[in-house]
Amino acid sequence: MNLKSTPKIYNYLDGNGNKYIISNELIEYIPVKPFFSSSGVYNGGDYIKKEISEIQYNKLTISLNIAIKIRNVILKIELKCLV
User: DSSP for 5-34?
Assistant: First the structure.
């Protein structure tokens, strides 16, 4: 099995607890329901599962990887400030 040819699956939780699952063929949005929200009121909306193209997947993964790198830099800066 060639690991380079195996696409990654990204799982992302936003600040409200809504979950996004992104694979090379699908994007899935799993909204948080009021019972599981911190306020007990917030509703993330409707569940969505859609097919995506290879181009869409590549654009999404580029954006996600940039966001991950930026967050890692921010975490390093925050940790240095604590020392």
Answer: GS---EEEE-TT--EEEE-SSEEEEEPPPG
Contact assessment for residue 27 and residue 17, using Cβ atoms and an 8 Å cutoff: no
pLDDT of amino acid 81: 83
The reply to whether the predicted model has a pTM over 0.85 is no
Token pair 């694979």 is found at 23
Q: How many other CB atoms are found less than 10 A from the CB of residue 49?
A: 10
Residue of 19, 52, 16 whose CA lies nearest to 37? 16
**Widest CA span of the chain, in angstroms?**
46
Give the number of C-alpha atoms closer than 13 A to the C-alpha of residue 16, restricted to the C-beta side: 16
For the chain, domain boundaries: 7-82
